[in-house]
Amino acid sequence: MSPLLEVKNLSVRFGGLLAIEDLSFEVREGEVLSLIGPNGAGKTTAFNAITGYLAPASGEILWRGTRRLNGLKTHQIAAQGLVRTFQKTSVFGGRSALDNILIGLHLRGRQTPLAILLRLPYVAREERELETEAGRILQFVGLGKRKSELASGLPYGEQRLLEVAIALAAKPQLLLLDEPVSGMNPSETASFMAKLAEIRALGITVLLVEHDMKMVMGVSDRVVCLSQGRIIADGTPAEIQRDPEVIRAYLGERYKHVVR
Amino acid sequence: MDQLLQHGLNALMLGGTYALLGIGLTLIFGIMKVVNFTHGELYAFGAYMMYALVMLTGVNFFVALPLAIALGVLLGAALELLLLRRLRGADIDTTMLVMIGAWIALQAAEQLAWTGVAKSINNPFPAAPLVVGAVSVAWNRVFVLVVALALIGLTYGLINHTKLGRAMRATFQDRETAALMGVQIGTIHTATFALGSGLAAAAGALLGPVFVAYPSMGDLAAAKAFAIVILGGMGSIPGATIGGFILALVEELGAGYISSGYRDAMGFALIIVILLFRPTGLFARKERIG
Amino acid sequence: MKAALTTAWLVVLGTLPLWLDNPYFLHVIIVAGIFIIAAMSLNLLLGYAGQLSLGHVAFFGIGAYASALTSLGFKVTIFPQWVLTVEANPVWLAMLMGMVAAGLCGWFIGRIAFKVRGAYFVIVSISFAEVVRLIAVNWVELTQGPMALNNIPPLALGDLVFWKKPENYWLVLAVAVVAYILVRRLVHSRAGRAMVALAENEPLATSVGIDVTRYLVLATVVSAAMAGAAGALYAHYVRIVDPDVFLFIYTVTMVIMVVTGGKGTLAGPIVGGLIFGLLPEGLRALAFAPETQWIVYGVLMVLVVYFLPQGIVPALRRIRA
User: Fold this and answer.
1) What is the nearest CA distance from B198 to chain C, expressed in angstroms?
2) A150 - beta bridge partners?
3) pTM of the predicted model, to two decimals?
4) For residues A112 and A118, what is the distance between their CA atoms, to the nearest angstrom?
5) Collapsing DSSP states into helix, strand and coil, what is residue B150?
């Protein structure tokens, strides 16, 4: 069975520099794969390239073995089933939480502009269904009570949850989370880890970029470590923890002796 | 061939003033990120000040010119302090709307002050043109070109060789770092707007005596200034200079060989065509995400 | 409560010509109504889809000219060998053509809007309107240039011709109500949500599958067609159309109406349209020079942007809350 996502020899130029060089890895269906690495290693750049926000200089991104993703526009990639979140909290601040999810449900709607203008009966029906579904998704992430509140008025941790909820609404097969727990306190992080398990139980594959090592080791099936635009290690969390290259990348040459 | 040369010469003279307009706007656009809708009105203001000084108060032409420019600088500074200061950090819509409001009010005030009748301004140059071979060149236009080039040179000097200029360049490149380095952003904004407005007023003060002054003359000038900024890229002074001359050349050749009625449309058509193929202008640096 | 208020408004508006005898005032209100329709269309583009389009008068004018020319019939030489002749057509068909022509231009602008962003798009939109104006001035064979198209047939529905003001008023009112309803339906739907999402946070919107080009084009086409309808109404009501209909100052008027009324609200353009549609007459009645009108506009706009940055309607809502 071919992997869900295959990144082959990906190179990305950003700001004149080669931010990612010859990157190759795969994501298998049903797993949680984490991308780690020191700041500037190219993790978010890889996300941007995979989801169409940056054009690769060379290489290929294959979806389900056959579909080439590089060259597609971001919304087309989302329609394929890859949905991402952003490093900096990204919600529709001026709209209510419910509206945010309704926007996320965009691909699930079928209303055409003409049908909307003519107020065909199925439009109202679809709106009702979408609203019910949106309420359900808010409940799932624990924001049910925040339905009518303005997204920009929510506390930080809840905004991050809303972000994930919006992504879930788009019915992803592969969910790409960019530092989802950054800025969260330990209890919020722990509850997010539990939520991640629930998301996984829904059959969604997860590709995660994270700095919080406890979370990475706790949720991941496999870990890929980047440094300066290249992969330096690829394996289970236990293997990665002991890998000398990884330790050197994070702590520098002087701490090589820390490896047990 | 002679016709071509004649057109080329006319373009040269027009291009100098166009470049002044363009440089002024690109500075404001580039450093302050403001869509300056009042730029055309400063142009008209320069022309009307020449009228007021030379025709109404009898000031000597060569004294009136720097005076008119200085008044333009002052008006620019006043506009920045009164209107734009309070809008620091507001989104582009809000600033744009305030500038449109100011533009309407300024033009209406000009109409009220000077009435709609076009005003001509006397110049002290001999009426008979200078004839060189098959081409003829009016003296007043030569003067315009010389002064325009001088002002362009002065602006270059200001931007590249003075402390103020260095601060302006720093603000253009990276506002936050510049502020951290001790640059007073507020002062830079006022200085930039004043300088840009002064250049527009200079263009008006130079061209007013060549043509006539009328209240809506600023609109066309503003449109051309925008075209030049797009041609040359936001914030690029060399781009605006070259853009000014290119626009003048395109206008002259278009008017001469295609149709003079569509002369003013040349600039607009140029804008649309360029932005269709190079959405960031001819000389701007590329960096797009998404 | 809300339904009662709306019904009351509709009754007042519907019976207006019956108790407002003065034909001059009725004329002012009719023109204001036409501008309100145009303002509502601009609100869709500027207020909801977040596009800084300052060339809106181009759609208005193209609607006016296309409708006038279709109803008058015209003859124009495209190439030396090919002369295009169009016979006179009934007014309802002409107005439809006006909307189609404007909508087509909207499609063109919508596609450009995607490629060209922010301040540059503002400039492109202004330039577009200016180019159209200059074409109207110079292509005399088609448009009569500054000599204007006149004797345009009046508004009519089939055999019913509207010679009197009250009938014109009711037609404009009907079109305005239909326009309002259409905008409301669009805005409160999946398509409307997509537009607003793009305006508010485009990367996030595309990450959930919203196609930027598709919805920008939709917003511009609907907005342009509606403005074209307003232009067509104008052409057949005033019955003279000249290139001045493309002046930038009219775009500015529409922008002022939308922004001071409250962009992104349904009632905003109506409130703004009433204020700025009726203000000039008020000033004229007080015997001020026409230039003063523009100074007042400009100052008012600056003041509203400073003190009520979101417009009058949201401010009123806040007071009520």
Assistant:
1) 22
2) A96
3) 0.85
4) 10
5) helix
Give me the number of domains chain B comprises.
1
List residues of chain A with CB under 8 Å from any CB of chain B.
Answer: 15, 48, 53-54, 74
Looking at the complex, does the CB of residue C294 fall below 8 Å from at least one CB of chain B? yes
Question: Which CATH number belongs to the domain containing residue B65 in this structure?
Answer: 1.10.3470
The structure tokens 């949905």 sit at A83
- Cβ contacts from B onto C, under 8 A: 124
Please report whether residue B130 resides in a domain.
no
Contact yes or no for A113 and C185 at CB 8 A: no
Main-chain phi, psi angles of C122, to 5 degrees: -55, -50
* Sequential pLDDT tens for chain B (290 residues): 677 888 888 888 889 999 999 999 999 988 888 889 899 999 999 999 999 888 888 888 889 899 999 999 999 999 999 888 887 767 777 788 888 888 888 888 888 888 877 888 877 877 777 777 777 788 888 888 999 999 999 999 998 899 888 888 888 887 778 887 778 888 889 999 999 999 999 999 999 888 888 877 888 888 889 888 888 877 788 888 998 998 888 888 877 776 666 777 777 777 777 777 776 656 554 332 22
Q: Is the ipTM of this complex over 0.85?
A: yes
Q: With an 8 Å Cβ cutoff, are A53 and B290 in contact? A: yes
Q: Do residue C200 and residue A92 have CB atoms under 8 angstroms apart? A: yes
For B63, the domain range is 2-112+135-277
Q: Which residues contact B110 (CB under 8 A, 6 or more apart)?
A: B41, B44, B45, B48, B215
Q: Look at residue B30 and tell me if it is in a domain.
A: yes
Query: Would residue B282 count as lying in a domain?
Result: no
Q: Are strands A82-84 and C82-86 parallel, antiparallel or unpaired?
A: unpaired
Residue B120 located in a structural domain? no
